[in-house]
Design a protein that fits this description.
Layout: H1 2-16, E1 31-33, H2 40-47, H3 51-57, E2 71-73, E3 83-88, H4 95-101, H5 106-113, E4 126-131, E5 139-143, H6 150-156, H7 161-167, E6 181-184, E7 200-206, E8 210-211, E9 215-222, E10 226-232, E11 235-236, E12 240-243, E13 246-252, E14 260-270, E15 275-285, H8 304-318, E16 340-342, E17 347-348, E18 357-358, E19 362-364, E20 371-373, E21 378-386, E22 390-398, E23 401-411, E24 418-419, E25 424-428, E26 439-445, E27 448-450, H9 452-457
């Protein structure tokens, strides 16, 4: 043991005496790819260059005619080359890890994005990154464990210790501390780990940034079986195994949630009692929800003495996250002719009151017949009359996903019924808080109402 320690110290001493030399970055102008919403003025402002110089170097005859995907040379960014890509910051990435991954100095990243503090970086934030085809990008391959030397870790990875040191942009191996993620060029990117923990291969949050009223999918791929827990925006996440070492949680984002930073927590325990914990923030973006025309309804249906007990009753029905996933494909439209009367999230005012609530679902008018169909397989967990919702049905689709059908003329199912996609479950009516006959269709994901149309347009998870 003593001999091994002395040998490691000797090699470290030799490495410490030589500082790695990095090649000077090319001075040719980098290329920026135009993004949605970009203008010449905004691009010039983003990179701190005169708009006239940007127009001149790219020989632009009509500054108003730039299009998404168009490459533009950016003058004045000395020492920066390659293609400037725009992406959302992935979860768990830091200013340092992105610097190492893309093999650029933190100073260059700061200049490109006008970041004055690395703490300004949050998952979902938009970031410009230089991508050099000659350098490529590096992958997270290991974490320097306490008690392990850099040499031992490099040998365990079958990597050259010199290469490992250079990849970390450190002048000396002793600068690399236990707990730091090591980056390198992996022969097989399938062996990459997350910057959060060696127990995690990857974490995906879609969409990122998260959006008011949207269904968020959190997919975690691990290196071994693990029990996961977590929270997003204060809601407990429920993870279900999708495939070997792949776990998925679905979570709705409240339509009135304040835009800005939203807390995200993730933790896990392995069968061997290994443990990791992560706390961070993700960017929450506002959705687009216009005001509906003011509505006049029966005052009883907006009385808190009536609405609050009903909300409590429905919340209890929706709180379980059934471990069985009943649906297998995209949801189908729950009516024969989908004519939309009101869309999800629209801000609402009742009887002259303020616009302090939102429409929790999608309204379909009577445009073909009165039939209401199950949009996907599931189990009926509620069927009965309510004051606000009228004759109501709720279907549990599993994994914390529910659908609701309000204001029915007639309910054609009972609690406990197993329904199939396309099965007749009720008739459109005008019961409860309504201004006319229609079907109000809701999708609820882990206790939060979400945009139902998303479930018609894409297959979750």
């Amino acid at each position: 043991m003593l001999r091994k320690t002395l040998l490691s110290l000797l090699i470290f001493t030799l490495l410490c005496t030589v500082a790695p030399v990095f090649a000077q970055s090319p001075t040719d102008q980098p290329t920026y790819i135009v993004q949605p919403g970009d203008t010449i003025g905004l691009i010039a402002q983003r990179f701190g260059v005169p708009a006239g110089d940007l127009i001149a170097v790219n020989s632009i005859s009509n500054p108003n005619a730039i299009s998404v995907g168009m490459p533009l040379k950016i003058p004045g960014l000395e020492g920066i080359s390659g293609t400037l890509i725009t992406q959302s910051v992935p979860l768990g990435e830091t200013f340092k890890s992105l610097s190492l991954r893309y093999q650029v100095s933190p100073n260059i990243l700061s200049r490109l994005n006008r970041v004055t503090s690395p703490q300004e970086l949050f998952a979902g934030a938009s970031l410009v990154l230089p991508q050099d085809s000659q350098k490529g990008t590096l992958q997270a391959e290991a974490v320097l464990a306490p008690g392990n030397t850099l040499l031992e870790t490099a040998v365990g990875l079958n990597a050259n210790p010199w290469t490992t040191v250079f990849s970390q942009q450190n002048a000396a191996p002793m600068d690399i501390l236990p707990g730091e993620t090591l980056f390198g060029k992996l022969a097989d990117v399938k062996n990459e780990i997350s910057a959060i923990s060696p127990m995690i291969k990857s974490i995906q949050i879609k969409p990122l940034p998260i959006v008011q009223g949207a269904t968020t999918v959190i997919r975690v791929q691990t290196t071994r079986p693990i029990a996961l827990t977590g929270k997003l925006a204060g809601k407990d996440l429920h993870f279900f195994q999708e495939s070997e070492n792949v776990y998925v949680a679905l979570q709705g984002v409240y339509a009135l949630a304040l835009p800005g930073l939203s807390p995200f927590v993730l933790g896990g325990t392995t069968l061997e009692n290994g443990r990791f914990d992560y706390q961070g923030s993700v960017v929450l973006k506002a959705g687009f929800f216009p005001n509906d025309p003011p509505l006049m309804v029966d005052p009883v249906t907006i009385d808190p003495a009536v609405t609050k007990p009903e909300e409590t009753e429905i919340s209890k029905v929706l709180e379980a996250a059934t471990p069985t996933r009943y649906w297998t494909q995209k949801f189908r439209v729950p009516v024969d002719s989908p004519c939309y009367k009101s869309t999800f999230g629209n801000r609402r005012s009742y009887n002259g009151g303020p616009y302090n609530s939102f429409h929790g679902g999608t309204d379909f008018g009577v445009c073909a017949n009165l039939n209401i169909y199950a949009p996907a397989d599931g189990v009926v967990v509620f069927a009965g009359p309510l004051t606000v919702r009228g004759n109501a049905t709720i279907i549990d689709h599993g994994w914390g996903v529910y659908s609701g059908y309000w204001h029915q003329k007639e309910i054609k199912v009972i609690v406990g019924d197993k329904v199939k996609a396309g099965q007749l479950i009720g008739l459109i009516g005008a019961t409860g808080r309504v201004t006319g006959p229609h079907l109000h269709w809701e999708m609820v994901v882990n206790g939060i109402q979400v945009e139902p149309v998303d479930w018609l347009q894409q297959s979750y998870p």
